[in-house]
Design goal:
Strand order of the largest sheet: 6-7-8-3-9-10
Shape: elongated
CATH topology of the largest domain: Rossmann fold
Bound molecules: adenosine-5'-triphosphate
Number of strands: 21
CATH class of the largest domain: Alpha Beta
Structural class: alpha+beta
Helix content: 10-25%
Radius of gyration: 24 Å
Order of helices and strands: EEEHEEEHHHEHEHEEHHEEEEEEEEEEE
Length: 353
């Protein structure tokens, strides 16, 4: 059992509030991702669990134990950093075994456990190498092996994949997910990469300016965003966010008209629609929500991203990979009205209709 609970936790650096009145319960065996842009307070939140920063106010618990003020080494957590933080003069075997050495685990048992985790992360043939003789991906696996060589109560991972190239990152992502499932250790994982968050997490806490904007499963965060910030942060390419006006259930903005929004009336409205929920129709399509010339066409492989100009901004839709339209050619688009979101531009919150 190891849940991590934050009760009204704040962290200030001088006058600057990095984390503000933070409340969260990370459940036992959960993979929880703290997701947000640079500077939103993710790392600070995690460092407070590790004991590398002290909360200015509020309480942090691991299970029933209040850990504020407890020295890091007595918290029984293991951290993996983006920078690996390996000892350059120690071999892979010594690096992985280091946490066992400082806990005075007998050498025989330590050797056995190091060999076992090295096998798990496919480093068993590299035990005698030094970190500088490894690739970035291999170094990252040493850092991971060092964290899992003993079973801590909690894993804390701070952007552990961000130094890897795209291919290795995808591979390590699934390895990490599998490993956490196998080890069943409560994990807090920090990232600004929404794909990483969506693929790894049981639940995601989307952070902005030191507070949680929304907490939910990846599916909830994607399909039920409660604020403009969450709507714009999740999804690639991101959701189209179109400022305009909603009156009696009809949204209008620079030539775009979407009806079927119940009775909603919002003077400063923002309509949110994902590229995958807009469909191209013929230019003469009478039921089109908008007819406009194509601004750009990008084939990504599995789809084609098509952009149209809408007032001062671009509207992007995800079309079929065989989409044949050309730049400047007019097309019509149909917005799936049952898939759009309406936000109040003043409060930044979603308006239900
Ligand atoms: P990143 O993804 O860039 O690491 P983050 O969300 O993890 O961002 P934090 O590292 O938690 O952000 O920092 C949150 C805010 O607190 C930032 O504005 C940062 O400048 C500030 N901050 C962090 N540590 C300190 C410190 N020791 N002294 C002063 N300000 C700090």
């Amino acid at each position: 059992m190891a849940s991590v609970t934050f009760n009204n936790v704040s962290k200030k650096f001088g006058e600057f509030v990095a984390v503000a009145d933070f409340n969260l319960e990370v459940r036992d065996k959960e993979f929880l991702v703290l997701l947000g842009p640079s500077g939103c307070g993710k790392t600070t939140t995690m460092r407070m669990v590790a004991g590398l920063e002290e909360a200015t106010s509020g309480d942090i618990y691991i299970d029933a134990e209040r850990i504020n003020g407890v020295l890091p080494k007595y918290r029984d957590v293991a951290m993996v950093f983006q920078s690996y933080a390996l000892y350059p003069h120690l071999t892979v075997e010594q690096n992985i075994g280091y946490p066992l050495k400082i806990r005075k685990v007998p050498p025989e048992e330590s050797k056995r456990r190091v060999a076992e985790v090295a096998r798990r992360v496919e480093l068993e043939t590299m035990l005698s190498r030094l970190p500088r003789e490894l690739s970035g991906g291999q170094r990252q696996r040493v850092a991971l092996a060092r964290a899992i060589v003993r079973t801590p109560r909690v894993f804390l991972m701070d952007e552990p994949l961000s130094n890897l190239d795209a291919k290795l990152r995808t591979q390590m992502r699934s390895e990490l997910k599998h490993l956490q499932h196998e080890l069943q250790v409560t994990t807090i994982y920090v990232t600004h990469d929404q794909i990483e968050a969506m693929t790894l997490a049981h639940r995601v806490a989307v952070m902005n300016r030191g507070v949680i904007e929304q907490l939910g499963t990846p599916r909830e965060i994607y399909s039920d965003p409660r604020t403009l910030f969450v709507a714009g942060f999740i999804g690639s390419p991101p959701m189209n966010l179109i400022p305009g006006e909603a009156r009696d259930g009809i949204f209008t903005s620079a030539g775009l008209r979407v009806d079927g929004l119940g009775q909603a009336s919002v003077p400063r409205a923002v309509l949110g629609v994902r590229p995958e929920d807009i469909h191209a129709t013929g230019a003469g399509g009478r039921d089109a929500n908008l007819v406009a010339p194509i601004y750009s066409v990008e084939l990504t492989g599995e789809n084609t991203l098509v952009s149209l100009r809408l007032g001062a901004q671009l509207l992007t839709l995800r079309a079929d990979k065989n989409f044949a339209g050309q730049i400047d050619q007019p097309i019509g688009i149909k917005v799936a009205a049952d898939r759009v979101f309406l936000f109040d531009g003043e409060s930044q919150r979603r308006v239900d209709f």
